Amino acid sequence: MKLTSKGRYAVMALVDLARFDNINPVSLRDISLRQGISLDYLEQIFSKLKKNHIVKSIRGNQGGYVLSKNPTDIKLTNIFHAVDEKVKTVQCKKDSKKGCNGKATKCITHNLWDELENHINSFFEKKSLEDLIQNRKENRL
C-alpha cells in the first residue's frame, strides 16, 4: 500500500492552513515555505481541493485560501478523494472475476489485503483535520 506525495502533501498543507486560517486567508507561498512543498505542486493540489469544496480562495492583496468547512467536518477520506488519491492494497478491482496476479483466480492472500484496505479506509474516515491539529498541539506540550 502506498500513498502518493499528492495525498500526503494535501493533508500536510490543509493541516497547515487549518492552523492559520481563522486569522486571515493563507497564501500558498507561506504553506510552501513552511512545509517544504513546491508552490507549483501546491497550486495543482489546491485547484482540486477548491473544485471539491474543501477550500475557498480569497482574492486580493491579503488573499489566499481558507477552509470551506470546520476542520472537524473534513475527514482524511474527503481530502484523498478530492485529489484523486486511492488507498488500495490490491491491484485488482474488488468486484472483478479476474485475479490480482493476472490469472483466473484471486491470489492466495487476496482476502488479507482486502481486509487491510477496509481497515485503512475506515481509519481515514474517522480522522479529521481537527484530530491532526489537536494531535500536533498535544505533541508540543
Tell me the layout of helices and strands.
Layout: H1 5-20, H2 28-35, H3 39-51, E1 55-58, E2 64-67, H4 76-82, H5 110-126, H6 129-140
Antiparallel strand pairs: 1-2
Question: Would you mind describing this structure in some detail?
Answer:
It is built from 6 helices and 2 strands; from the N terminus they run αααββααα. With 141 residues, it is mainly α. It has one domain: Orthogonal Bundle (Arc Repressor Mutant, subunit A), CATH 1.10.10.10. A two-stranded antiparallel sheet has the order 1-2. The longest helix is centred in the last third of the chain and has 17 residues, at 110-126.
Please sum up the structure shown.
About 50% of the residues lie in helices and about 5% in strands. The protein has about 140 residues and is mostly helical.
Could you tell me the number of beta strands?
2
CATH class: Mainly Alpha
Biggest sheet details: 2 strands, antiparallel
Mean pLDDT: 87
Could you estimate the helical fraction of the residues in percent?
Answer: 40-55%
Which CATH-level-2 architecture? Answer: Orthogonal Bundle
- The fold-level CATH name is Arc Repressor Mutant, subunit A
Q: What general outline do the C-alpha atoms trace?
A: elongated
Spell the H/E element sequence.
Answer: HHHEEHHH
- Rg: 18 Å
How many domain regions?
A: 1
Which residues sit in consecutive blocks of at least 5 with pLDDT less than 50? none
Helical segment count: 6
Order of strands in the sheet with most strands: 1-2
Tell me what portion of residues adopts beta-strand conformation: 5-15%
CATH superfamily: Winged helix-like DNA-binding domain superfamily/Winged helix DNA-binding domain
Helix and strand content put the structural class at mainly alpha
Oligomer: single chain
| N-C termini distance | 33 Å
